């Protein structure tokens, strides 16, 4: 199965309590008042891993052949998930895998979501199953957007990541087919040391491909042994500068995942451009709505376990036994992640902690402490 370079090790036996996380109700205070006022009782995005199955042949360890798991959602359970998403008025449902095309109910699920006014995006691999007819049928079913992985602007970079020769060329071909049927395209890129110097070429490529969104996913190591692939704090800042400059001239949206401190960078740039200085009032009034671990995002794996992030291996419950709304609004894990008073180190002192908060997944991966300071942030808040 194709996976990200750092998939969390999930277990259906329940979450392991991380350092600093308790089930006690958070104390009230200025930061909690702000959190309560800004908290929306629904996710902005729910991502469902429909399957881990994949028929892609590869030589790289990141990609293996995998059959469908018998514990995957049934079609009835999939419809129930869509109904819960619709009832909460979640703005976006993302379907991913593995290869979702291996699920025979993929098209009915998309149609079911469309009939309930659920905007749906689908992340696919450029496998032989994805032909022109399939792309046209996805559009006809009501799919809002399709996403593909490109971890480099060249075949040398992209093919090396998956270990699948020709995957880069094939991805460019299917992007063209999507344009022919009028299906908008998103590109996902994991940003790590291997493609650190490929940001500008990627921006040029995506401009030519006429995509609508670029999702830049900042690498989260699956363990300390992968720390060598991690970008430094200064390198994050360098990429932030390139993304910000590009956002002013490209026609596609640029979104970051596990790069929460990019929101801090945006606020800094806007304050400098206005020749002003950031204050807490400025942050509260002008901060964009962001998606962070526990704030606006839920990841559901193919067994139904619910996580605050795809990269944080701590489950808050299972959707086959607990309502999505109950877990998102009331589970101790999600509630704790929304309490900025729990943040430690410079994250706890930071002016924009309620906008950024740092990557909790990266902090946990590097320290074992869910509330440790963001390991890859160069910003030093004033005392």
Written account of the structure:
With about 375 residues, the chain is of the alpha/beta class. It has 14 helices and ten strands. A ten-stranded mixed beta sheet has the order 7-6-5-4-3-2-1-8-9-10. Helix 4 crosses helix 6. The longest helix has 15 residues, at about 165-180.
The Rg value, from CA coordinates, equals 20 Å
Q: What's the average pLDDT?
A: 85
Q: Classify the secondary structure makeup into a structural class.
A: alpha/beta
Low-pLDDT ranges: 1-37, 58-64
Number of DSSP helical runs: 14
Number of strands: 10
Helix content: 25-40%
Shape: globular
Q: What oligomerization state is this entry in?
A: single chain
Instruction: List the secondary-structure elements in sequence, H or E.
Output: HEHEHEHEHHEHEHEHHEEEHHHH
Strand content: 5-15%
Q: Give the strand order of the largest sheet, numbering strands 1, 2, ... along the chain.
A: 7-6-5-4-3-2-1-8-9-10
For the report, how would you describe the main beta sheet? 10 strands, mixed
The separation of the N and C termini measures 47 Å
């Amino acid at each position: 199965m194709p996976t990200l370079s750092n998939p969390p090790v999930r277990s259906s036996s329940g979450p392991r309590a991380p350092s600093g996380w308790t089930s006690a109700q958070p104390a009230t205070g200025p930061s909690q008042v702000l959190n309560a006022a800004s908290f929306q009782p629904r996710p902005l995005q729910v991502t469902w891993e429909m399957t881990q199955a994949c028929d892609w042949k590869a030589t790289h360890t990141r990609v293996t052949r995998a059959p469908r798991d018998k514990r995957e959602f049934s079609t009835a359970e999939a419809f129930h998930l869509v109904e819960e998403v619709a009832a909460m008025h979640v703005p976006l449902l993302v379907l991913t895998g593995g290869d979702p095309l291996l699920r025979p109910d993929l098209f009915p699920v998309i149609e079911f979501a469309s009939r309930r006014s659920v905007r749906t995006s689908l992340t696919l691999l450029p496998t032989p199953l994805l032909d022109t007819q399939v792309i046209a049928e996805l559009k006809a079913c009501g799919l809002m957007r399709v996403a593909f992985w490109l971890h480099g602007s060249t075949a040398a970079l992209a093919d090396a990541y998956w270990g699948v020769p020709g995957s880069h060329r094939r991805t460019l071909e299917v992007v063209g087919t999507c344009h022919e049927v009028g299906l908008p395209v998103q590109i996902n890129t994991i940003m790590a040391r291997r493609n650190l110097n490929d940001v500008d070429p990627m921006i040029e490529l995506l401009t030519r491909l006429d995509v609508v969104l670029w999702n830049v996913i900042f690498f989260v190591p699956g363990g300390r042994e992968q720390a060598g692939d991690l970008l430094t704090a200064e390198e994050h800042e360098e990429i932030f500068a390139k993304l910000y400059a590009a956002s002013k001239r490209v026609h596609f949206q640029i979104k970051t995942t596990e790069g929460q401190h990019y929101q801090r960078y945006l606020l800094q740039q806007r304050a400098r451009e206005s020749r002003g200085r950031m204050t807490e009032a400025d942050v509260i009034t002008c901060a964009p709505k962001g998606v962070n671990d526990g704030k606006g995002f839920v990841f559901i794996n193919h067994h139904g376990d619910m996580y605050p992030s795809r990269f944080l291996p701590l489950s808050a419950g299972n959707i086959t036994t607990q309502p999505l709304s109950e877990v998102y609004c009331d589970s101790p894990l999600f509630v704790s992640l929304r309490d900025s008073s729990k943040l430690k180190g410079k994250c706890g002192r930071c002016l924009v902690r309620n906008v950024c908060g740092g990557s909790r997944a990266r902090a946990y991966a590097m320290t074992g402490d869910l509330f440790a300071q963001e390991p890859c942030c160069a910003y030093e808040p004033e005392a």
